[in-house]
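User: I've been going back and forth on whether these two constructs are worth ordering. Before I decide, could you fold them both?

Assistant: Sure. I'll take them in the order you sent them. The first construct and its structure tokens:
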Amino acid sequence: MTKVELAYFAGIIDGEASVGKWRAGKNRIWQARIVMTHTYRPLGNRLVHAFGGHIHEAGVGPLGRKQRYQWMMSKQPEVRKALRLLIPFLDEKRTRAKQTLKFLDYLQAHPRPIGRFR
């Protein structure tokens, strides 16, 4: 992937995505994710092709306007790789991305996520 493509994706993620950690699943374990809801399916396809993750339909927007899609990355190796590639190009989400990488390092050092990460 070129620097121009990374800068393009970083700009989209900076403005539209959420980067961080959430509790997931029935056991409510902590998980790092990158999530973005959008209305242009080809953009989601490009993100999947570039970084991985998956897309699902997120329903119709307010007032029944456009179909929404959600791109999500939750596999920890994918999230780690994407953030490492994107951090040099991020602005608004750079601090959050670095915190998320620290969280991933914590999870790697402690395979069983327990309690709250601080």
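The second construct, handled the same way:
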Amino acid sequence: MLGSGADGSASCPSATRVMLAFPLHVFTCTTCYTDSVDETQNLTLRLSVATLKKVRIAAAKRGTSISALVAEKIEEIAGDDEAYEAAKRHALQLLQRGFHLGGRAVVRETLHER
């Protein structure tokens, strides 16, 4: 990412600047790491040879890599879990509040008068 200033300077105070000088040319490479950058981490899986063969075929049919296919499914599962938890919280809030089913309030004593 090149700097955004008029002199090519970076707008990020934590930017790392590397100057490479060649005859007649000066190249500036600025890297800025912020919280908005999605970080990824490697994951090692152990799969049977037969399963791995099936996954390779499935990824090839979808035009993607095994890594991207696995990451997509894991993100889908995580998203489903988040959606379930949100729905559960909402349902519990509704139960705490209660429902008005119509009618009028009844006093216990009037129900049990003899």
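Notes on the second construct follow. The chain has three helices and two strands. The radius of gyration is 30 Å.
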